[in-house]
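RETRY 2/3 - previous attempt timed out on the joint model. Re-submitting the same 304-residue input unchanged.
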Amino acid sequence: MSAGRPGSGVTVRVPAKVNAQLSVGAPRPDGFHDLANVFLAVGLYDEVTVTPAETLRVTCSGPDAGLVPLDGTNLAARAAVALAARHGISPDVHIHIAKDIPVAGGMAGGSADAAAALLACDTLWATGSTRDELLAICAELGSDVPFSLVGGAALGTGRGERLTPLPIRGTFHWVFAVADGGLSTPAVYGEFDRLTAGTDVPAPAAGEDVLRALRTGDAGALAVALTNDLQAAALSLRPELADTLAVGMSAGALAAVVSGSGPTTAFLVADRWSAEKAADELLMSGTCRSARVALAPAPGASVV
Ligand code: C5P
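RETRY 2/3 succeeded.
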């Protein structure tokens, strides 16, 4: 991997994700939940550029830029700090995020920026980190960050950070309806706990039907197998998402599901034409802020 010209920046392109299955267990003593998380990277991308600077700073462009924190809490800044600390370097870079992934939407946009900043800084600083070292830092930064680095399709276990790559065939067509405002991931997990309190929450497990649908590239079978254990919690906090799901289904989607902790809703469709039709109808319905068409699987974070 090239570090680019001396003094120049490094840009990394990184995809969003959707969950083909999100199976959630009971809360653990550390507050996290064990998951069986079937991640699928989708072709909506952020681009993160790091350039040597006097001091660490973060800027962001794109329609949702105003929603992105630019201080030390930004996960991309934390990635630069974590890598620099590991190598005894000062994290003096300007991180610019060209944001296209919905913010706080359940598509791992913040995690994507962290993985991208980590790879970009690693390339810029030529630290010689191994892939496993980068994945370990990703796992410290957040449960979804390792997958953003890896992309494709993978099963995440533990809190989602332990990845097993999954075989996947063909291309799946998706439409994403972006809701107004975000949903807090901890709040959605908290609502899951409230809704399941007093019940026997089974240990999470990946469904053989989901894995087979991905392996065989069968969109019809994937449509039947899509599940998200956080969906009821997201709908409880944002009941109007049910309207968006219904519009997408009546527009011809094969399946509709809340993406991760929401509030973005995801629609699996048969082909490009169906995707454009569903996106148009979702937008015209007024039940979402925007509708985006994307293909899966998409590659993980990579230097451009
Ligand atoms: O790992 P990450 O920082 O993205 O998690 C954000 C929050 O989501 C956690 O603080 C926790 O409330 C919740 N979470 C969880 N179980 C997981 C992943 C996330 O409870 N497996």
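The pocket of cytidine-5'-monophosphate is lined by residues 31-33, 35, 142-144, 159-160, 185-186, 189 (CB under 6 Å). Closing ticket.
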